[in-house]
C-alpha cells in the first residue's frame, strides 16, 4: 500500500472519477470533491475502499466554499493536488454567436477558478509533489489550425495555460512539479460517445504521467501518453 495522498477536485464523474479510481487502485489515499447535489458515482467508490477515500464538497466558482475547504484541509499534506473541474459549450457556437454569460461562465470555471484554487492550495503540496490542472489539447494555440469547434472552450483552456505559466514564472525556484494535463478526447458527458478514448485508458495514462513527472520541477504541458503538447 502506498503512503501517497491526492486531492482531486471535480471528481463526481468522467475523468475526475476515473483518476480517483486509478489512484485508489495504485494504493493512494484520495480526498475527492464533488459539488453539493452532484449526482455522481463517488459514493460507490467510497463503499469499495473505505477510509482511503474521503469525500469533500466544493464548487470551485464559490470562493466561500473554496476557503472553507482550505480551512477543513489545513494541516493536510498532498503528493498531488489536481483541479480537474471544467465545463464546455455548444460545439459549433462561435465567438460571433456566444452570449456574454456563456463566455464569462467558461472563463470563470475553466481559467480563473482553477488558478484561484491553485494559489490557495499550493502550500498543501509536499515539496516534491505535483500541483496539476486538467487543461486540454484544445488549449494549444499552435495546434489550432483547423475548424473543429469549441472556440470558447479552446480560449478558456489557452487562458488557463497562460495563467499557469505566469504562476510558474512567479514560483521559478519552487521544487514542486506543475502539470497542465491534456487527457485526449475521452468518452464522458463532456467528450460525448464519439470520442476515441475510454475514461480508463485516458486516466491510466494521466496517472502514469503524474507518477513519472513527480519530483521534476517546472511546468509541463503533457497529454495522457506523456507527450509534450505544443503551446
Ligand atoms: N472529455 C474530454 O474529451 C476532455 C478532453 C480534454 C480535457 N477535458 C477536461 O477534463 C476535465 C473533466 O472533463 P470530463 O470530460 O470528465 O467532463 P464531465 O464528465 O462533464 O465532468 C466534469 C466534472 O467537473 C465538475 N465541475 C464542473 N463545474 C464545476 C464547478 N464549478 N465546481 C466543481 N466541480 C465542477 C463536474 O461536477 P458535477 O457533477 O457537479 O457537474 C464533473 O465532476 C475538464 O476540465 C475538461 O475540460 C476533457
From TrEMBL:
<dbReference type="GO" id="GO:0016616">
    <property type="term" value="F:oxidoreductase activity, acting on the CH-OH group of donors, NAD or NADP as acceptor"/>
</dbReference>
<dbReference type="Pfam" id="PF00106">
    <property type="entry name" value="adh_short"/>
</dbReference>
<protein>
    <submittedName>
        <fullName>NAD(P)-dependent dehydrogenase (Short-subunit alcohol dehydrogenase family)</fullName>
    </submittedName>
</protein>
<dbReference type="InterPro" id="IPR036291">
    <property type="entry name" value="NAD(P)-bd_dom_sf"/>
</dbReference>
<dbReference type="InterPro" id="IPR002347">
    <property type="entry name" value="SDR_fam"/>
</dbReference>
<dbReference type="InterPro" id="IPR052184">
    <property type="entry name" value="SDR_enzymes"/>
</dbReference>
Amino acid at each position: 500500500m502506498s503512503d501517497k495522498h491526492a486531492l482531486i477536485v471535480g471528481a463526481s464523474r468522467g475523468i475526475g472519477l476515473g483518476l480517483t479510481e486509478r489512484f485508489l487502485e495504485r494504493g493512494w489515499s484520495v480526498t475527492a470533491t464533488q459539488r453539493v447535489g452532484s449526482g455522481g458515482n463517488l459514493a460507490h467508490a467510497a463503499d469499495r475502499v473505505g477510509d482511503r477515500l474521503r469525500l469533500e464538497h466544493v464548487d470551485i466558482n464559490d470562493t466561500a466554499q473554496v476557503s472553507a475547504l482550505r480551512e477543513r484541509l489545513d494541516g493536510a499534506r498532498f503528493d498531488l493536488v489536481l483541479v480537474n473541474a471544467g465545463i464546455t459549450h455548444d460545439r459549433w457556437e462561435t465567438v460571433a454567436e456566444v452570449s456574454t454569460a456563456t463566455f464569462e461562465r467558461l472563463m470563470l470555471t475553466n481559467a480563473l477558478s482553477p488558478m484561484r484554487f491553485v494559489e490557495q492550495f499550493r502550500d498543501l503540496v509536499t515539496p516534491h509533489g505535483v500541483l496539476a490542472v486538467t487543461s486540454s489539447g484544445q488549449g494549444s494555440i499552435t495546434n489550432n489550425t483547423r475548424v473543429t469547434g469549441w472556440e470558447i472552450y479552446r480560449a478558456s483552456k489557452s487562458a488557463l495555460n497562460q495563467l499557469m505559466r505566469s504562476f510558474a514564472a512567479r514560483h521559478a525556484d519552487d521544487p514542486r512539479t506543475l502539470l497542465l494535463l491534456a487527457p485526449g478526447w475521452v468518452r464522458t458527458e463532456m467528450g460525448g460517445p464519439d470520442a476515441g478514448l475510454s475514461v480508463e485508458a485516458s486516466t491510466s495514462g494521466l496517472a502514469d504521467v503524474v507518477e513519472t513527472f513527480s519530483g521534476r520541477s517546472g511546468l509541463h504541458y503533457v497529454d495522457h501518453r506523456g507527450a509534450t503538447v505544443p503551446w
